[in-house]
Amino acid sequence: YRPHGLRQSFTYRPHGLRQSFTYRPHGLRQSFTYRPHGLRQIQTKSKKTLAKPGVKNIVLVEGVRTPFLLSGTTYADLMPHDLARAALQGLLHKTSLPKDAVDYIIYGTVIQEVKTSNVAREASLGAGFSDKIPSHTVTMACISSNVAMTTGVGLITAGQCDTIVAGGVEFMSDVPIRHSRKMRKTMLALNRAKTLGQRLSLIGSIRMAHLTPELPAVAEFSTAETMGHSADRLAAAFGVTRLEQDEFALRSHTLAKQAQDAGLLSDVISFKVPGRDTVAKDNGIRPSSMEQLAKLKPAFIKPHGTVTAANSSFLTDGASAVLIMSEEKALAMGYKPKAYLRDFVFVSQDPKDQLLLGPAYGTPKVLARAGLTMDDIDVFEFHEAFAGQIMANLKALDSDWFAQTYMGRKVKVGAPAMEKFNLWGGSLSLGHPFGATGCRLVTTVAHRLLKEGGQYGLVAACAAGGQGHAMVIEAYPQ
Amino acid sequence: MFSYISCRTFSVAPAMSARTHVNYEVKEDVAVIRMNDPTSKVNTLSVQMQNEMIEVFNEVLANDAVQSAVLISSKPGCFIAGADINMIQACNTSEEVTKLSQEGQKMFARIENSPKPIVAAINGPCLGGGLEFAIACQYRVATKSKKTVLGTPEVMLGLLPGAGGTQRLPKMVGIPGAFDMMLTGRNIRADKAKKMGLVHQLVDPLGPGLKSPEERTIEYLEEVAIQCAKGIVNKKISLTKEKGMMQKVQDYVMGIEFVRQQIYKTVTAKVMKMSKGLYPAPLKIIESVKAGLEQGPDSGYLAEAQNFGKLAMTSESNALIGLYHGQVACKKNRFGVPERPVKNLAILGAGLMGAGIAQVTVDKGIHTVLKDTTVEGLSRGQQQVYKGLNDKTKKKTITSFERDFTLASLTGQLDYSGFEKADMVIEAVFEDLNIKHRVIKEVEAVIPPHCIFATNTSALPIKDIAAASIRPEKVIGMHYFSPVDKMQLLEIITTDKTSKDTTASAVAVGLKQGKVIIVVGDGPGFYTTRCLAPMLAEAVRLLQEGVDPKKLDALTTGFGFPVGAATLADEVGIDVAAHVAEDLGKAFGSRFGGGNVEVLKTMVEKGFKGRKSGKGCYVYTPGLKSKDVNPDIEDVLGKYKLTPNPLVSSDSDVQYRLVSRFVNEAVMCLQEGILNGPVEGDIGAVFGLGFPPCLGGPFRFVDTFGANKLVEKMKRYEEVYGNHFTPCQLLLDHAKDSSKRFHK
């Protein structure tokens, strides 16, 4: 299983590279005056609400996340379930939810710590939830926590549950590094060996080469291509230039910084890390300058590639959690829901040449399902795996030829308006803990709808394996 | 590679005429030169192409706004596939060909010395003259597409790279690498080419974007090449590569004359061992390389041009070029497009043959069912298919995922379930008419009406097998050769009743499987087995006459057969050989006599069935490459001992006794209409039976050797052995009239 971002782990150090950028928090603002407020023009929605008769309304009550930190920083000595615990406790704290009021807990994760393979269970027990609440872990690359949430939606719709906690966690500061297959085979045989002679002969069969460790694969299993390499090819296929990518990366960092400074990232909880300080902020946001970004060499396709460390998302530790309920239950318990979770789709395509086009395929599909148009959407939150990947998806959405040739559509749906798009930063700047990003996207849409006064929001994300996800979120009437 | 000066057929076009093959546009200060032969699927260095190229090159040099150039093909799948062979064939003397070569050398020397750097942007095949063109450029960028291959296949046409290739390659990839490329003629993939230093930079093929992947990939290649061209001009890219430690050591070693002499010696010895001295081209390649390295470029280029001229006039080159054309012809479906494409193929019998057929089918997008009667047989067959694919994975030609994905199209089963969806059934069960009849009846009960029934047999007449069919128009023979994944030939046999669409469909499947196909008429042994049988009968007689198997092998390989006659019998299987000899003996009577069939039968009784049983003419020890003569066959042969007649038992006579029977039978197949023409006859003999490629096949051999000379020899043998050596009428006709030739 090959999440993106892993490519960076063993080949080069994104953080190290970042440090060479001039960190200029002020000064760059003028060039990015995307004014989220005030721009909103009143438009006629094609639909007043997406509620359907006979279908339960499902609401997002609250969403939280730990600060997203560059891997190898303050969280370095934790374990994945510690991060998940922090998110769960944050959720409990924020919602004052009784610890036995939850029906089911679902977590998404990508790189599994083998000791806690059902990290949902270990985290919920450790977070003090009742041991009577069942929990399971799901995985679908970068959309793992989206799957956790939609699984919860399914359980509520099916009448199985009313209250679900979903979340995601990723811990890249420590990943399972294994002995080689040959070494493992010898060690397992050693377990079964009965006599000293058998043991000695097995030990004697060990060669130096067997001691080479096996790192988590840095490539897509089916194609053996790293994700950054695929992103670079994707950018080239859509004619995305290096300049466009650097501009988008800078935009992401600048907007994230603005949002952080303005206190908009209210889903972030502060977390007292055992043995370390309390962290309360994401630490990967570093607005730089175009000149600095231009200095970087391509990271994957050399020498003519366009994807660099700075216009890719970086390896991140972090966890997120959301409380999802049926509307009636939420109201009965006295909660004021933040948003409705509406239609969603999962899509998948060719893992070689269309690895990261999930949003391009998912967006038109989910809009059609909800009966909405691009114009109906007030808030877009797309997962930013790579600046080049985002630009490619935007170009694909804006191309009639692509829509006709690859999606079987008559016309394009169009690209999202940039003044509605990822206005509080994105995975490029906030960080991308694979399993946790989905909940961040959904919570951010809910918060932005509240803040900006919009009605519909759209989440879209790509994932390894050539898969993708999109979901429509409706503001809860205030 | 050549210019119009030497071409007699080309009338000089008016200077202002529009160019059709080569064009260029200037992007900023880079001239993008685009090649596209509108008359063909591939670009070749034809006269027209060269003339326009020279014109464009002159314009580019004269244009002050241009600092550098990019050379690229606008065809999505082809850079330059090579020089135009017809130009060489149009020449009558070696001097003319030498002249062609020198013109090419001159043009590429101009490219090499161009003051404005030229970047070759390669996507698709870059072969022969195309490669020589590319390596004359200052810089090469290639796509990593599977279609992109670089190579010098001239040796396979009995020629050498005659436009500077023998001189530039050793400098570029080192002496051993250059010899390897030029002597084997093999295709080199882009990533390997990069490692060897043949190309400087690689470009990944792109997937879907705002244009078709093919179109966008070429555009991207062009963009990268333009960047490189600019980079060279503004000195960001250095053309002198920093040499690694290994490279320095290698260069030092190659700088020692003694070492180089050793290399020439070793390579020559290897070539002699493999070619038995029957192929002049490899030796001339070594000679040309040596001349350049030891006596300087002037001697080198001269040697190359002169040797090129000499080679073009050899019968070997003529034969190999004939085979090349024949192969191209046999890769076409002369029966048209079948009404419905075969999407589901079922194979009966998971033996060596059945599994082999599955192996070459399953990765071509055809769903393949492999059916056997026992779990053991089926497992063995499935394992064979798996191993074939897994070996490709180990060689990294496919990924493990591609292997698994391909295997998902293979279904192994013991019953006839799903046969109602089959578009074609190929049976590869035991060679016994009764079994074949039973199978055909069973199958016809479960397959849909449009389904074709193909039978894989090496000797049983198809009409006899079809006798049990209720729909004989759908019955056809598909004779594969073992091992199926290695042998290129497929012999398709039609009966009077086989419909044209059935034939078209069988050919289409064969072509998909990557086969070279001959379509022949029905009859005992069809074409290939029928030619081989008398030769094997003669081989058995020679063994009876006391010729040692090793000697027999040496004489046959010495004549140019890739496998000796005794080894061939072991490979085919002594039991199969006995079976065929008996069947064909019955069908054709005493003419197919010679060796005593009892020899083979006795060997089978003793368990000497050939390689598969570990013993035949030789003893095969697993893991050992060398083999010894089976000591126990002495007894068998002793029992059937014949006294050789010294008049017809010289080494040369032994060779001609074997070959003449083969050739006579081939000619008789043409005479009887089994064969469609001499081209298919030559292709079938060379690709299916290993007839010496340097002779170009039995028909070209008759043309070259002279029918009269061959008939003369046969008459001499006829006096001793009777009708085994009676020349057929068509051969006699050719002997009488020397103007009659099989190949024009």
UniProtKB/TrEMBL annotation, chain A:
Domain Thiolase N-terminal: 58-328
Highest rank taxon of the organism: Eukaryota
Database matches in Pfam families: Thiolase_C, Thiolase_N
Quaternary assembly: Heterotetramer of 2 alpha/HADHA and 2 beta/HADHB subunits; forms the mitochondrial trifunctional enzyme. Also purified as higher order heterooligomers including a 4 alpha/HADHA and 4 beta/HADHB heterooligomer which physiological significance remains unclear. The mitochondrial trifunctional enzyme interacts with MTLN. Interacts with RSAD2/viperin.
Pathway: Lipid metabolism; fatty acid beta-oxidation
Protein name as it appears in the record: Trifunctional enzyme subunit beta, mitochondrial
Matching NCBIfam families: AcCoA-C-Actrans
Subcellular location: Endoplasmic reticulum; Mitochondrion inner membrane; Mitochondrion outer membrane
Family statement: Belongs to the thiolase-like superfamily. Thiolase family.
Gene for this chain: HADHB
Domain named Thiolase C-terminal: residues: 335-474
GO terms classed as biological process: fatty acid beta-oxidation
Keywords: Acetylation, Acyltransferase, Endoplasmic reticulum, Fatty acid metabolism, Lipid metabolism, Membrane, Mitochondrion, Mitochondrion inner membrane, Mitochondrion outer membrane, Transferase, Transit peptide
GO cellular component: endoplasmic reticulum; mitochondrial fatty acid beta-oxidation multienzyme complex; mitochondrial inner membrane; mitochondrial outer membrane
EC number from the UniProt entry: 2.3.1.155, 2.3.1.16
Role this protein plays: Mitochondrial trifunctional enzyme catalyzes the last three of the four reactions of the mitochondrial beta-oxidation pathway. The mitochondrial beta-oxidation pathway is the major energy-producing process in tissues and is performed through four consecutive reactions breaking down fatty acids into acetyl-CoA. Among the enzymes involved in this pathway, the trifunctional enzyme exhibits specificity for long-chain fatty acids.
Species annotation: Oncorhynchus tshawytscha
MF-aspect GO terms: acetyl-CoA C-acyltransferase activity; acetyl-CoA C-myristoyltransferase activity
Main location: endoplasmic reticulum
UniProtKB/TrEMBL annotation, chain B:
Pathway: Lipid metabolism; fatty acid beta-oxidation
Transmembrane parts of this sequence: none
Site location (Important for hydroxyacyl-coenzyme A dehydrogenase activity): H479
Catalytic site positions: E491 (for hydroxyacyl-coenzyme a dehydrogenase activity)
Site residues, Important for long-chain enoyl-CoA hydratase activity: E132, E154
Catalytic activity: (3S)-hydroxytetradecanoyl-CoA + NAD(+) = 3-oxotetradecanoyl-CoA + NADH + H(+); (3S)-hydroxyhexadecanoyl-CoA = (2E)-hexadecenoyl-CoA + H2O; 1'-[1,2-di-(9Z,12Z-octadecadienoyl)-sn-glycero-3-phospho]-3'-[1-(9Z,12Z-octadecadienoyl)-sn-glycero-3-phospho]-glycerol + (9Z)-octadecenoyl-CoA = 1'-[1,2-di-(9Z,12Z-octadecadienoyl)-sn-glycero-3-phospho]-3'-[1-(9Z,12Z-octadecadienoyl)-2-(9Z-octadecenoyl)-sn-glycero-3-phospho]-glycerol + CoA; a long-chain (3S)-3-hydroxy fatty acyl-CoA + NAD(+) = a long-chain 3-oxo-fatty acyl-CoA + NADH + H(+)
Span of domain 3-hydroxyacyl-CoA dehydrogenase C-terminal: 525-620
Subcellular localization(s) per the UniProt record: Mitochondrion inner membrane
Keywords from the named record: Acetylation, Fatty acid metabolism, Lipid metabolism, Lyase, Membrane, Methylation, Mitochondrion, Mitochondrion inner membrane, Multifunctional enzyme, NAD, Oxidoreductase, Phosphoprotein, Transferase, Transit peptide
EC number assigned by the record: 1.1.1.211, 4.2.1.17
PROSITE patterns, sorted: 3HCDH (PS00067), ENOYL_COA_HYDRATASE (PS00166)
Pfam families in the record: 3HCDH, 3HCDH_N, ECH_1
One GO cellular component term noted in the UniProt record for this chain: mitochondrial fatty acid beta-oxidation multienzyme complex
Any one of the GO BP annotations: fatty acid beta-oxidation
Subcellular location, principal: mitochondrion
3-hydroxyacyl-CoA dehydrogenase NAD binding domain span: 345-522
Molecular function GO labels: enoyl-CoA hydratase activity; long-chain (3S)-3-hydroxyacyl-CoA dehydrogenase (NAD+) activity; NAD+ binding; transferase activity
Domain of life: Eukaryota
Family: In the N-terminal section; belongs to the enoyl-CoA hydratase/isomerase family.
Subunit and partners: Heterotetramer of 2 alpha/HADHA and 2 beta/HADHB subunits; forms the mitochondrial trifunctional enzyme. Also purified as higher order heterooligomers including a 4 alpha/HADHA and 4 beta/HADHB heterooligomer which physiological significance remains unclear. The mitochondrial trifunctional enzyme interacts with MTLN.
Designated name of the protein: Trifunctional enzyme subunit alpha, mitochondrial
Organism: Oncorhynchus tshawytscha
Gene designation per UniProt: hadhab
